[in-house]
Design goal:
Blueprint: E1 10-18, H1 24-34, E2 38-50, E3 53-59, H2 62-75, E4 80-83, H3 89-100, E5 106-108, H4 126-133, E6 139-140, H5 144-151, H6 158-169, E7 175-179, E8 187-192, E9 197-202, H7 213-226, H8 231-247, H9 263-268
Parallel strand pairs: 1-2, 1-4, 4-5, 5-6, 6-7
Antiparallel strand pairs: 2-3, 7-8, 8-9
Amino acid sequence: MTAPAPIPPRVLTVAGSDSGGGAGIQADLKTMLALGTHGMSVLTAVTAQNSLGVQGAWELPADAVRAQYRSVVDDIGVQAVKTGMLSSAALVDTVAELLAGTGAPVVVDPVGVSKHGDSLLAAEALDSVRTKLLPVATVATPNLDEVAQLTGVTVTDEPGMRRAAAAILGHGPRWVVIKGGHLPGEAVDLLTDGSEEHWLRAPRLDNRHTHGTGCTLASAIACGLARGQDVPTAVRGAKEYVTGAIRAGFALGGGIGPVDHGWRTRTAG
């Protein structure tokens, strides 16, 4: 008799669809597969999106988001959840309430703008992100634009990343990763819970095809947490994976291409 196949860790993404396949739900599921977990999805919005930008976005009703979430969690269960594009206060409130009752680690990527500068979060939703979503996060992963959007803190150097981390932690997440990729020099991120600090550095790669880096990092962290890793271990592993994906990023269309989620497989081949 054949033994049943082992069940991989189960990771759920709650995010929007990127029709170009570089970010959003598509990037999340590719990351989850690449890192040996079973990815599941709750769709929050549909975007018309390609390498040049976002041409349109259509939010799903809160009831549809809630039904998807309950369907997956109540039957299959989850060992980590990652959130991405939650475009309105109604969706932020709905998802925050669902997460609070789930009991799994949560990685919050507070998506505010796309790689091309397109707004993906209504201004009136910012307060809900601060007061409802961030407090349920195990790890929050804002970039510097999202830090400014949420806290008013503008970061221009590494010491500023500490101020940014303190401001985000003030809204309640257990840990925060301040992504310093927009600063000059090395690609440096700061992981902290307010008491211990981990500075994660990688060489600056000469590749403009970086669409999906934020989604990919947050999903990779969720995969590590689903495997039972502690937060610093999960974040270090995610940083390594994303750095390789950026290095292998490739051109698609006429604009910014995606990172390569399957770079390890292609490297091994």
